[in-house]
Amino acid sequence: MIFKWLKGPEYLMKKILLLTTGGTIASEPTKEGLAPGMDGNEFAAYLSGLSVNHQIQIKNLYQLDSSNIQPEEWQGMARAVADEFQQYDGIVMTHGTDTMAYTASMLSFMLQNLPVPVVLTGSQLPIRHPLSDGFENLRCAFAMASSGRAGVFVAFDRKIMLGTRAVKVRTTGFDAFESVNCPYAAVVDSAGLNLNEAVLPKPSGNFQLIDNLCDNVILIKLTPGLNPEIFDMLLKMRYRGIVIEAFGAGGLNFIRRDLISKLHQIVQAGITVVVCSQCLYERSDFTIYQAGQKALESGVLQAYDMTTEAAVTKLMWALGQTDRPEEIRQIFSTCYAGEVSLT
Ligand code: ASP
User: Fold this and answer.
1) Ligand 1 centre and the CA of 129: distance in Å?
2) How many domains does the chain have?
3) What whole-number distance in Å separates Cα of residue 177 and Cα of residue 64?
4) What is the arithmetic mean of pLDDT over 233-246?
5) Are residue 153 and residue 112 in the same domain, yes or no?
């Protein structure tokens, strides 16, 4: 059910924290191409329209192209939110678009039962550019951050998506993100911010910061005839988790190059393997085909309709908490932040 968000005084003067981390939105031309150069104070000059309706505090966390955002930064962001959220109605985080989907997923897992909105946004053109999409994205992010609805979200091109469902699908278009296998959490149109109640997270306990993670996780996209020996190398390199984007609804090669036996060996050796589909939309189901059922028998976990970004970050997060296979299986059979439909 969709309800229209209040347009009255409740909307006004919410206390919002803006955390900046870099990305195109904060970038400037340099001799080597666009690079993040604006700090929080410089950003403030571009927020005059928003400061009419909100009390805004700005904190500069990082000045990074999001290609350089890594697990250490995810922990820094999660800790910054955990330290600050009690003093604000909501938090907006500016971030590069390239890895925003990974960050949004990871923060969704790390910030359990977060009682306020944290809304990630960015832009395809720097905010200094006269035609930047940054203003519109920021305006929508601030509206969502003022909504009082808890959770981690991505705001882009007038759409608000669950952090665990957002995927970057365009390199340059302003409609760069899609909500994959899940309706939008809200859309912005002439009626205001239209929230979709069915999608919004419902916190069910006390807030908890769970920010341990394991960065020895790799993503492999299956290609026809992939040589199974690659997995021996990963074992030697002490990888603890592997996400495999398999074919279609769920299938892996087992004639001539027998990937299934190899997966069995590495699962026995203690590596967690999660299989998902390389198709962007709809769920994987490894029970449909022989080539999938054999994989399940080898002990791999299914990602069902999770995005690849959610599957990778959930595996990193799960392995940060435990190395016991039954506990990891239990984590993967639990939906924490709208990331998976388990029915
Ligand atoms: N390379 C940029 C980044 O991810 C792209 C962007 O922000 O749109 O930081």
Assistant:
1) 15
2) 2
3) 20
4) 96
5) yes
